[in-house]
Amino acid sequence: MLFRIHILGCGSATPTLRHAPTSQVVEHETGTFLIDCGEGTQVQLRKNKLGFQHLQNVFISHLHGDHCLGLIPMLSSFSLLGRIKPLHLFAPAEYEQLFHAEMACYCPYSDYEIAFHGIDTTKEAILFENSCLEVSTIPMDHRVPCCGFLFREKPLIPHIRRDMIDALHIPVSQIMNIKKGADWTDAEGNHYTHEQLTKPAHPPRAYAFCSDTRYMPTLHTIIKDVDLLYHEATYAEDNLTNAEKYFHSTARQAAHVAKDAGVGKLLIGHFSARYPNEKILLNEAQEVFANTLLANEGMIVDV
Questions:
Q1: 163 an active-site residue?
Q2: CA-based angle 130:133:138, to the nearest 5?
Q3: Beta bridge partners of 137
Q4: Read out DSSP for 36-54?
Q5: Which of 66, 120, 141, 260 is the catalytic position?
Q6: Cα 135 to chain center, whole Å?
Q7: Which of 140, 136, 167, 176 is nearest to 153 (CA)?
Q8: Span 59-113, pLDDT tens digits
């Protein structure tokens, strides 16, 4: 089942020629989701051939410009392109009044509905769910109200074995019952257990987006065992003082979160413009957590 992350931007507050501000697309079998919308996000969507029409849910982590200043221009373009599908916007509750004022000013003739969902960034809560996936908040520790997002698949029911369907002539009407745990008895009275007729489904996967935040020693308890963790790594340890001052994390601290949480893979981003080469950040993180990757625009990572 499709579950992948597209990196549109992984820089920090100051855009550079190397990195765009923060934005990601989570592409799942059941939907396409945008996380944050820094300046130029709509251009990055085009560059990465990610269609606007598939995007139905946008999640904004906090109200610093490098995470949200691309939102209104993108929504305006949706309107100019004739969008009619509703869009759901999940953002800190403090943004709602300003958002409606911006829309009234820049997008007064929009023909599609935008439903604003205010987030309490201090609490863990489910924001969205469908039959296969749920998205919940991860409270962050930043200078303004801020949260991360946890995308977690729901447990799937087992798959029925095709060879057993054919061999035992199991009617279609009974397949779902068997998947849900029922046994099967054929016309001759032969009994087959649920376990004989099915094979386990793929284990549910999870992705955690954690940016922006200073180091949180207890964060690992919320994101335990996720398959992929994106964690900000704005600074190296040589700038620990700045990390603490501006409520950001170092690459080493991000790696400690990944290690403590037992994640499958760590992806670091939100790089300070002071680093012309992020190799120092990668090396620092890999000393603590070997399975670490550097984010980069255009990168696609399967969960």
A1: no
A2: 115
A3: 149
A4: ---TTHHHHHHHTT--GGG
A5: 66
A6: 8
A7: 136
A8: 999 999 999 999 999 999 999 999 999 999 999 999 999 999 999 999 998 899 9
